[in-house]
Amino acid sequence: MCGIIGYVGNKYVDSVLLVGLERLEYRGYDSAGIATILEGELDIRKKEGQLKKLAESLNLKPLGGNIGIGHTRWATHGEPTEINAHPHTDCKKQIAVVHNGIIENYQDLKENLIKEGHVFESETDTEVIPHLIEKFMDANLEKAVCRAVKELKGAYAICVLSEKEPDKIICVKLGGPLIIGLGNGENFVASDIPAILPLTRKVMYLKDNEIAVITKDKVKVMNLEGKIIEKKVETVDIEISRLDKGNYDYFMLKEINEQPRVIEKILHERIKNSKIILDEMNLDKQYLAKVKRIIIQACGTSWHAGMVAKYWLEKYAHIHTEVDVSSEFRYRNPIAEGDTLMLAISQSGETADTLAGIREGKSKFVKVLSIVNVTSSTIARESDGILPIMAGPEIGVASTKAYTAQLTTLYLFTLYLAKLNYILTEENLENKIEKLKQIPDAIDKVLKKQDIILKCAEKYYQKRDFIFLGRGVNYPNALEGTLKLKEISYIHATGYPAGEIKHGPISLINQDMPVVCLIPKDELYDKMLNNVQEVIARKGIVIAIATEGDKKIAEIASDVIYIPACQEDITPIVTAVPLQLLAYHVAVKLGCDVDKPRNLAKSVTVE
Ligand code: G6P
User: With a threshold of 0.90, does the pTM exceed it?
Assistant: First the structure.
């Protein structure tokens, strides 16, 4: 993770770097720093904590200059202190480096460099890089960087600035994402497009083992042997307004409220004359019809979306489906044959574990279809085909609109396979599509119930533990509910399949324990009601997410948040929303920084 940025041109570099870093803060916010060159001298400013502390310091005493690099950190090696903040430098403080990723062999490198007389200041893995460059600096900077990176093992994206060659930024990518932005008399480099979007829409994507030398008038890209590589220049078409909070206090709240429109957009793009259109899949129908097994691998919220999809794929498409957390998948020696399809789900398309899972699958000749939000991402580029979820940029660290967009896309994919395999008739398919079209309206109605959810949050925000229960398709949503609450409010929560509580978690229930029960009207309603009674019998506080008109639940639960009636298999797309709002309002009541929860980052590019 971590966000890196570089600028060279005629603008005042402090502000270009700060604006860019603000848009990269979702990648980490433990500390921030910049290095610039003014009148041939390298100067560095860094601060522990969020970017605003660095901004305050620069306001009081700017660095200045027209060339610089910047970094916002998510700590891996070394605590989030000022000393460990990037940029890091060599012994003479002439070379500055910002880095995203992990240098796995840094300890060996550091020991050798120390023996050779280099003096280290920080506990980071990154600091070996400027020292290695310094060691090889007998030729020019470009060659020294190439020689230095050949010593590194791990995944990284780095930017280098040196007062010896003060007109250029050199960057190298292996693993971590790096995008070069092209301007008029100015050029940029960043971990992600939003960082440079206000200033240019023309970009080039660096590939692994490519090095770029960036000056204000030129960008030269080479491989590590120095062979020039011609890069394609692409134009980005993200609306800038989608990167702002608008009138909302937090991006998360804005994104929760965007959900009905996102789902409408997906349905508009993907359904034409009652047919499901999934053109970008790049997998032909003959191949898909032969798929006998699906392996889904993903992390965090995307993993929960995969868990819901398993219920759908097995029920409607009759395809055996396994779901793995990516960080486990690649270490369990999964068996994959020619009739296995891998679905990789990732909002960012940069999650290191998910990417490693894809590579593992591809090494076994499995085709990979990725469900991504960022279509220019590494995961999108390395997959055989993609299904974009069309949610637009998601900035809040806790994923919301991407989740319901993933669910909608996965449901459409399931119906597509079910139709292809002659399991769903034309009429059944049309009926299911009609029901799906009611979902945006159902979510709009839930969004109008914010008062009720806020009151609920006010009642329980001081509790230190929560339990979330669900059954069937709503069991993964119980896990998603706990994840939202834990991520942004730091309240401990555990999620369980409701039928399983009697095997352990029921011992936790007493008059102090809020238990969020997902109990929409579906085929498991009666079973779920029994579990709710079990909670009440132990004096637990039941917060029910139930279907409009369910009076039975209102008589026994402490609080009820109603959702409109909808087709039972797709209720998770709607029940997710009150869970998101509950977590949001609890976190706000507790005074937490909703968009930047401690220790987390939006894009997790380390394994
Ligand atoms: C991080 C984020 C989560 C996200 C997970 C997977 O943990 O904080 O919100 O669900 O990564 O990310 P991906 O981009 O692969 O969906």
Answer: no
